[in-house]
Amino acid sequence: MLGSLLVRIGLALLLGFVALQVVVVAATLWNDGRPVVFRLISPRQAAAIADALEAASPSQQAKLLTALNGGSLAVHLQPAFADDGPHRVGGNAPYLEKLYGEYAAELGGRPFQVQAREGSALASLSQDRLGAPAAVRLLVRLDSGGVVVIEREPVLLHRLMARWAFVGSAIGAILVLILLFCIQQMVVPAHRLARAAKRLATDIDMADLPTHGASEMKMLAVAFNDMKRTIRELLQERTHMLAAIAHDLRTYLTRLRLRANFIRDPDQQERAIRDLEEMGLLLDDTLLFARQVTTVPADQQRVVDANEEVLAFVTMRRELGDRVDWNTSCLAPLPIRCSPLVLRRMLANLIDNALRYGAAAHIGTARRSEAVEIVVEDEGPGVPPEAIARLVKPFERLEPSRNRRTGGAGLGLAIVTALAEGQGGTLVLENAARGGLRAVLLLRPVPAAGDAC
């Protein structure tokens, strides 16, 4: 999931948005090591205000207060402290101890308090909520009598953070979602192309990709569709060419078969006829594989019961005298979507391979989480692990001859692999635990309404 391009871009946008929010909040709330929400006027300003008020007459004090009040600053006089305790917001925070020391030095020994607007001191800065309406104020006792109260409203915090922070965050989140949606629309064609490229290996007749979206994706989809048509035409030309060659070769084989009947030596006649028959079978196998039967038209694919098909095929082979048996871990129907003709061809090739190399074929069926499993095991010596991968390649045989009595042309398992992939399945080869080769055919299951294994 984390490897998805959409997820990676989304995480990058989200982290960038969160980082931006953190920087904005930090820059707004913190300045010179002091939180802006609790920031007072400087000690020098406080001392200057106190000195000016002490030096002014009552009428001048009124004018001075009028001049000082405005913006974020509010200054007024009151008779005395609400109480005589040394109220100071923030407790014993190091930077506050330094700040309070500066106030004491600048105020020249005048008593002062730092309180919340309501008149009650806060025990700690962390107890106040970010954006709370309570402002912090400085109270200084004047030598001439009375107490000057200096308040600084956290205007920036209230008007920007408290009022607009939520709105800004919501707008930012909406923008991130819109960006993710736009990115998804750009990524979807890439996902569609990847799925189509994977499917092309088993379905050359798949529908063309839609050619809409960004210009680059349109060009890519058009190029993919053109490539698919070119590959399909090449395969069709190859199949037609091989079919024509096979037709002509069968004509010559028929002539040779007729001429072989005139061979006087019975032994030589039998050998010649047998060779011609093997040539015909080899030609049929080669043509079938060359056709790359990797897809079957939809009207030939239907839901069939794997157990029923396997049992019928095993019964037929046993009637022919072959050593074939069948067992299953699931007696309930095992519905799969497959062409019955293709399924029987795959079973025939696997059973023939098992009988040729192992004298007997043991067939089993089972239902797995994502596939229906058809297993064919033989009683042969098995295959070296490093040679198993070669068995599904065309014309690959561990026994180097092309004599069908010793193993055929090496196309049986290659044909099964091609047919299985055409049905949306796979063929897995491995050595059985009791010896011999184990061929596992995995086919697409169909959900069953009844008993499931």
From TrEMBL:
It catalyses: ATP + protein L-histidine = ADP + protein N-phospho-L-histidine. The chain crosses the membrane at residues 164-183. Signal peptide: none annotated. It holds the Pfam family HATPase_c. InterPro entries: 2C_sensor_his_kinase (IPR050980), HAMP_dom (IPR003660), HATPase_C_sf (IPR036890), HATPase_dom (IPR003594), His_kinase_dom (IPR005467), HisK_dim/P_dom (IPR003661), HisK_dim/P_sf (IPR036097), Sig_transdc_His_kin-like_C (IPR004358). It is an enzyme of class 2 (transferase). Residues 244-447 form the Histidine kinase domain. GO terms for molecular function: ATP binding; phosphorelay sensor kinase activity. Residues 184-236 form the HAMP domain. It is a multi-pass membrane protein. Keywords: ATP-binding, Cell inner membrane, Cell membrane, Kinase, Membrane, Nucleotide-binding, Phosphoprotein, Transferase, Transmembrane, Transmembrane helix, Two-component regulatory system. This is histidine kinase.
